[in-house]
Structures
1.
Amino acid sequence: MNDAALDNNASTESSLFYALHLLHRSFSQNLRHEEDSIDPAQIGILMSLAQGPLTLTELARQHHVTPPTASRSVNLLVKAGLVTRTVPEDNRRITLLALTPEGNNKRIVLRERAEQHVSDLLSSLSADERDTLDTSLKLLIDTLQK
């Protein structure tokens, strides 16, 4: 356990960062037990491409990685049949990345698994504690979307 998380005087920022770390680690461990699991970075790519096609450069920027790093993950997703690369007729200098129908189905299944995993983790909370958490998360989401 992290000392900052145990400290009642820990900043909101430290507590949030630590909670995100624990949630990511827990979900990653849960994924490793699945026979058809993919890397957490690849999950992020599937989630990003669900918003619409992107160039590799746009995708790399969204994920705060270099294009070669993003390219390695994309190559694996293309080989798995989850992502396609297309060159638009009106601009042959770029390549667009998009989800295949199988990639979109995989994204939906992974999101459902993630939501079930979080539900299982939170099952020990009382109704009042869940209401408090829900209210706080809505405030956080509203703040982040500004």
Note: The first helix runs from residue 3 to 6.
2.
Amino acid sequence: MKATAMTALLISALGYAPVVTASTRQAEPVVLLHGLARSASSMQKMERALQQEGYRTCNIAYPSRHHDVATLAKDHIAPALQRCFPGHEGRLHFVTHSMGGILVRQLAQDEEYAKRIGRVVMMGTPNHGSEVIDHLSSWKVFQHIAGPAGPQLGTGADAIPQLLGPANFEAGIIAGTFSFNPALSLLLPGQDDGKVSVGSTKLERMQDFLALRSSHAFIMRNPQAIKHTVHFLRHGSFRTAAT
């Protein structure tokens, strides 16, 4: 005890201050949500970058292939938020890939979470559905791979993306413009990332929009996407981030 007290006095006398790191300072919480049939590991590169910038992160793994969108949001994402940030009642930021963005929109239908959702970056999110889903949803193999949530992401009037309404939070949308799959791109109007058209990613009342040369599968690992995501979380815009 004496040694500890003496050390503290010596540090004070010499004018030193304890080093403040990302793990010790009061950092804002950021939730990462992967896409359909992906895993939390797909968001790890983004997560590490956010941690280096001082954010507290929660990279949620959820059973995307086993439940519909509403069940995933209510029974998996919401409880995980409580476990990640116990006692936290302030804003929660989100960084999402593909269906992860739809889950945030679903979560925002709950008044409790609607008030707490802060800034949200959506990468390759089918905010108006995907024509690829329209084409494949009747295939047994697709139903097996995508589970109950997959067919919900089409472009029909009764599809989940069409029913959730405009953004009621600060949304930054990043769309990809490069496709590894020209066959699927033939199903999509205009520019696309191989799974989702650029036009479908846009959301009414979004805060900002950015298109990058990246494919759907890897956009969350794209260095420019990571850079712009950090900028949006800080400032609510992509536009002044260096490219």
Note: DSSP finds eleven helices and six strands in the chain.
3.
Amino acid sequence: MTLLANAMKALDSLREQAKGSKDTALKENISNLYDNLLDLKAAVIRVEEENSELRRALAQQAERPPEPQPREVGNAIYYFVGDKGPYCQPCYDVNHRLALLSPQAEYAGGRGRKCEACKTVFFETVGSPARLQFGGRGGPDDWMR
């Protein structure tokens, strides 16, 4: 802005010197130069305002946490934010809340992770039916006797 201010001062000085002149072409050129300089000043102000708005938008964007991205792990789909995760998909989809899942553990239905917020278990590998355990003394048909 100081460059424009210096140009405006120089043009003001030139206009003062030309006031006593009878040269109409000189006065017209100075007038046109004034108009062009004022247009340039208005354009610079618009660019500075736009630049300021863009800086504000960038600052707001930097404050906002990044959006989680879905990633398939085995038979389950989890959300990850960069390398951090996995996060519970239903908790984020319904409540817009990132709930970190437990470490992988062995469950009756296979290996998976549990969300402590919504209590959902996500199976990454499905276990075989032979792994299922039944209560009581006998096998699965013992209850019929």
Note: The first strand starts at residue 69 and ends at 73.
4.
Amino acid sequence: MAEWQVNVLGCHCALSAYVNGAAIEAGVATEVATSHKEAKYADIDSRCVFEPIAVETLCVFNFSAHLLLNELGKRISAISGEAREASFLFQPASVFVQRFNDVLLRDSLPAADCTD
């Protein structure tokens, strides 16, 4: 059975660890997040496969997740005959990031006064 866990960096203290690298190069924050998750789950049961998937705001994936999704897409394409299977795997993450950014933007704006 697959188990999914999503972590969103939202507090200033957590974000500060990522800012310096992210300011230099795209993808650095995803690799830092991946390293933290790998350390957290280092003792996971050997019967399980752990693959962290980290995505930056502009949909930059961590390297290992990119390889995983591409390989999975190729294998699905070989069976289905649909060459775009890998793209279909990346699209939900892109939509998720866009929706989350929308929520953050809305929450940061002052509420409209509609009591006229």
Note: The mean pLDDT is 77.
